[in-house]
Amino acid sequence: MLETESSPDLFGLKRDVDALSKQCGKLLDRAKGREEQVQSARDHLEELYSKLQRGTEMLGRAIATEESQGVVGMETEVINQQLDAFKVFQKEEIDPLQTELQDINSLAQALIQSAAKASCTQGLEEDLDDINTKWNTLNKKVAERSAQLHEALLHCGRFQDALESLLSWLTDTEELVANQKAPSAEFKVVKAQIQEQKLLQRLLDDRKPTVELIKKEGAKVVELAEAEDRDKVAREIEGLGQRWDALLKKAENRHKQLESILVVTQKFHETLEPLSDWLLATEKHLANSEPIGTESSKLEKQIAQQK
After folding, report:
1. Distance, CA of 107 to CA of 149 (rounded, Å)
2. 222 near 237, Cβ under 8 Å?
3. What are the pLDDT digits (tens) for 255-276?
């Protein structure tokens, strides 16, 4: 049968079938890969909104606690009790909430940056802006409460109590900065780290009036105190100023470092993205190409198309 002109080209047919089989296999692999990507994106989105719900609930409780705090007292004992309650509030509600919001921002930014060009992320961005706005408002009120309590202690002549409370906060913040992860080389991760750094900077900005107040009152105490106490207070104020300046410098340097890395990673991302799109389009084109022909005329036509 193979010797007659009218006989089908069985070898050619076999090559066509093999080519179709390979293309089918590639399409199945691509479909499986796409399914895994979609599943991964869905899992991350579900994780994000689970965290958003938990963060919103934590934020609601923290706002209620902040609003339930009474007017700052006029007596030292009352003020110290309020300051102790404020410290518990910070440790049990504000600090965990800040950590939760850092995770939310990091995960949300990663999802936004990894979304396809045609994807709509407006709803996600609005949800993120909403919780961040509420957090910033709460954080500002917390800083104002701290300043009011410290100022009240100073007015009652309790400079040392106010100083120790501020130094305790400073130690916690120094630990937070020391435990920050190193700047990433990935564009989407750096974007998230910059958002986290902005949250930290707001925290420092809100505390600045309290630090300046303590330093100012400390200078007055140094002028009026006896020699022994004067030297002790002067060393404490000097240490406070040095640690505060060092903390601000670290935050500033990290922000500059992140912004510098962002420029480089963004350029790489903008260069890589068109190449990835081109590769994807080429892969689709090749996957959808008809099998290689077994006749010279068909082969010539396919070669011309590839050019």
Report:
1. 36
2. yes
3. 999 999 988 888 877 776 777 7
pTM (whole model) above 0.85: no
Whether residue 161 contacts residue 80, with contact meaning beta carbons closer than 8 Å, is answered with yes
Q: In angstroms, rounded to a whole number, what is the distance separating the alpha carbons of residues 59 and 148?
A: 22
**CA-closest candidate to residue 232, choices 222, 217, 242:** 222
Residue, of 147 and 15, whose pLDDT is higher: 147
Q: Please provide the DSSP assignment of 231-255 as one string.
A: HHHHHHHHHHHHHHHHHHHHHHHHH
Which of 247, 255, 84 lies closest to 175 in space, CA to CA?
A: 247
Answer yes or no: is pLDDT of 293 > 60. no
Rounded distance, CA 166 to CA 247, Å?
A: 14
Rounded Cα distance, 152 and 73, in Å: 8
Closest C-alpha among 62, 241, 77 to residue 145:
62
| Amino acid found at 12 | G
What is the CB neighbour count within 10 angstroms for residue 55?
Answer: 20
